[in-house]
Amino acid sequence: MSEQSQTINKKSNNEKEVSLREMIGVLVDNKWKVIVTTTLFFIISISYALLATPIYSGSALIQVEQNTGDSMLSKISDMLPMAGGKPASQTEIGLLKSRMVLGQTVDDLSLDTVIEEKYFPLLGKGLSRLEGKKKSNIAISRLVLPEDLLDKVFTLSIISPSTYEVRIGNDVITGKLGKLLIKDDINLLVSGIDAAVGTTFNVVKQSKLTAINELGKKFTVVEQNKDSGLLLLTYKDESIKHATQVLNSISNNYLQQNVSRKSEEAAKSLEFLKEQLPVIRGRLDEAENRLNMYRQQNESVDLSLEAKSLLDSTVSLETQLNELTFKEAEISKLYTKDHPAYRTLLEKKSVLQKEKDKLNVRIGNMPKTQQEILSLTRDVQSGQEVYMLLLNKQQELSINKASTVGNVRIIDNALADTKPVAPNKILIVVIGLISGLLISTGYILLLKFLHNGLESSEDIESLGMNVYASVPVSNWLKDKNVLLRNKRKIIRSTTFLAKENPSDLAVEALRSLRTSLHFAMIQAKNNIILISGATPEAGKTFVSSNLGAVIAQAGKKVLLIDADMRKGQMHYVLNCNDRVGLSSVLSKQVEFTDAVQDTSIEGLDFMSRGQIPPNPSELLMSEDLNVLLIWASKHYDLVIVDTPPILAVSDACITAKYAGTIMLVARFHTNTLKEIEVAARRFEKNDLVINGVIFNGVEKRAANYYEYGAYKYYS
Fold first, then answer.
1. pLDDT for 168
2. Which of 653, 639, 692 has the alpha carbon at shortest distance from 527?
3. d(CA 375, CA 381)
4. CATH number for the segment(s) 457-714
5. What is the pTM of this model?
6. Which position among 388, 526, 568, 583 has the lowest Cβ density within 10 Å, counted as fewest Cβ atoms?
7. What are the sequence ranges of the domains in the chain?
């Protein structure tokens, strides 16, 4: 295996590394793409910032106070060690955002009917606002649609100051201002028109749930400070007036439900007391009757001081136990016995019961007469205490029910700032600039990573191949060449660069190549140079023709042979004909000298491809080609053979065995490193070695400025 082959094997699997310098160079090369893209994004962002509809934010403040209701249930939480003192803000936030509250606002403000003027798509609404045009409006007092038409858009067009036209599906209905329009299940009443004739509106009747969800998207509630009980309500809308209306409605509906809830709580407690009062009154009457009968039977019996003391203590305990019994009756409706509040109540009741038991033991040690009178008197006094307690509570709850205010109050009614909160124009423009810059640079760098086209001679040299010259692209020729598209065929102009613009940088590079070839061919077996490319469009014909010209201009006699008998176009460049040529010689139709043509360059002769034969490979494999090249080698100082691309057909390998020097043309940014590698292997399989590579069409880029700029001195 040759040294070149070993190097190719070593380098072929290496990933192409991209340095920071190359990336910067790529960006510099494509700076106009970056500038144009960034400018485009900048213009789009400015346009959006100017045309986007302003959004205003309204706010209201609500205070949730600690629950201090007067019902018996309101005192149960006091029994818990950690209870009380903090408002349940999260619960109230949930209530504010509930369907109960928001749904009432939807009904109050008819938010389920959405009306929007129809503008030109994207730009119409913004342009209308910038022009200061008055916003058109219509008022719909009633809109009833069947369920299958809910959440669907229909149009309403103004056809006169008092007449409108509605398009729902395929139906067109005409209605009049202030008159109820009825058709099938559709009811529509337009109560006001403030729009010019011809104005069209999009109207949507949303389902209740859709309207609530849309309202919830614009509505937020946060607690201003932790455990403060102050709730900040905000709502964002295109209209300042509408934003404040919605917030005030939500605040009032929330307040109303809170008051209703508190009033209902008082009503339930009052109902409970009304049920208990007759029972307690009956027990009290029975106790008084028993005491009176005992006194009559035993005449007058007085209590001792000790008995009076025990009686007072016992009555006090009985009163407390009765209060706890009433509380237990209420709390049992809300909680199980495992609830902390219920357990606390039972524990307190147990303590009082133990104290009562101790008093009963002391009472049991007293004389029987004293025990009986004390017991009867205790029953009467306890009953009176309980009865009066319930009577007072009943009156208190009756007053509270009539004057319930709840534990919520509106601190600040809704107000909206006249300065819109969105869009943030400065931020949008900055994001637009950054996005344009990032997208353009990202796209360019992505193409850089994905594209494997050759960008420097170092890429080729990494395969162990010598680069004899880097030929810069000729901007002069690029401007002169006109691509004439004739269906599938592209024909280039006949501009011969070496003759028409000999001072071009590309020609100077070929003169440098001429010098390199002079020394490289010292060890060659003959004076025949074969020039091929890996793929079409590499520029081998350009290199062959102009290289032959600069060598001829140096006083050498050169024969240029177009061996591409399939698609050879060199006769166009040299302004010669293809009536006779290589195919004519190999098919023995003409002699060698008859196929050679003079060119406009002194010392440069040319043999065209001739007429395209049906069997070009077979002609090249004949011994006549060898005879021709031997003849040419003897009669000329240098023979240049231009062949088809090696990866396309095998013609180059057939011809190359007669050449002393083999050159491969690789085009900047067109050929890939893999193509060069495969081309080298294709020659190698035929026991042929590429002597060097001509790097053609090198463009002036920041990433390869040194390579391109080497010839700038001569310009």
1. 86
2. 639
3. 10
4. 3.40.50.300
5. 0.63
6. 388
7. 17-52+423-450, 113-205, 264-403, 457-714
